[in-house]
Input
Amino acid sequence: MLNPFGKALRKLRIDRGWLLKDMAQGIGVATSFLSGVETGRKSIPAGLVEKIAGWAQLASDEANKLHQAAATSQREFKITVRPDFSDGDREAAALLARFGELPREKRDELHQLLKKKFL
Output
């Protein structure tokens, strides 16, 4: 079963009439690797969406949709703790890393709070 990024990537390719190998060559990756990313067997590496958006000459709204699909398809996230973060900031980052341990109701509440602040 395809994840949201795989679905978006496949739709982009089909809508534009590109084969998997065409896109893979265009962005400089192996066809087997891109197939693995599209089917969700491989993680989406940093910078891949930008490579695809640049090669495919995506409009900003199309690129944003692809970024959003990639974000919802990630299995792991990295939280960068900058040198200027306070101890409280570091604690908050550590707590966010434990997001999956929260009960569903609390995850939903936190999601809505963050969504209001960022979107």
